[in-house]
Design brief:
By secondary structure, the chain is mostly helical. It has three domains: about 30 residues; about 60 residues, no CATH class; about 70 residues, no CATH class. The chain is built from six helices and two strands, in the order H-H-H-E-H-H-H-E. The protein has a two-stranded antiparallel ribbon with strand order 1-2. Helix 4 packs across helix 5. The longest helix is centred in the first third of the chain and has 26 residues. The chain is elongated and about 55 Å long. About 5% of the residues have low confidence.
């Protein structure tokens, strides 16, 4: 009797493990179904199956969740499929390691330098964009982080940049 329950439990766990492996191999990341349906309403989607990167592209994954009842959508130009590996609309479905928040960014800076850097960043990312990054409402990607570092270096600040945290997040 105990052997049967052990085998039944083992089989159930093994099936769950195989199911998870299949999901990981198929999309490499699980994105919540609810988020995909919300994004499908307003997100630029893609239906180009010939694209070699389509299985790892957020635009293609979201495109698979557009409801049939939706009258119109915004989608990537199908003529882009002719280009090999370069798609300007590609969005990687893999989580990226990003910085979030800049609340303590200026803690060690002299006030004059803080004002000059802050003004430069606002000019570059707009006031709303800058404050969204500062309040951690917008992730700071590696490219943006390099630009911020360049602005700081141009103003003479060579210390380590202080972001509030680093997280792995899907960049929409």
């Amino acid at each position: 009797m105990q052997t049967e329950s052990f085998l039944a439990k083992y089989t159930r766990y093994f099936k769950s493990f195989l199911y998870l492996c299949a999901i990981i191999l198929k999309q490499k990341v699980m994105i919540d179904e609810k988020i995909l349906k919300e994004k499908a309403e307003k997100y630029l989607v893609c239906f180009i199956e010939q694209c070699p990167k389509h299985e790892h592209c957020l635009r293609w994954i979201v495109g698979q969740h557009v409801p049939c009842e939706q009258l119109s959508i915004t989608c990537v130009n199908p003529k882009l499929a002719k280009k090999e590996d370069e798609c300007p609309a590609f969005r990687d479905s893999q989580p990226q390691n990003v910085a979030k928040g800049m609340v303590h960014f200026y803690d060690e800076m002299p006030r004059k330098l803080e004002v000059a850097i802050k003004n430069d960043l606002i000019a570059r990312y707009t006031r709303v964009g800058y404050y969204n990054m500062r309040k951690a409402e917008r992730p700071i990607t590696v490219d943006v982080e390099k630009e911020i570092e360049k602005v700081c270096r141009n103003h003479g600040w060579n210390n380590k940049l202080l972001f509030d945290e680093r997280v792995d997040e899907v960049i929409w």
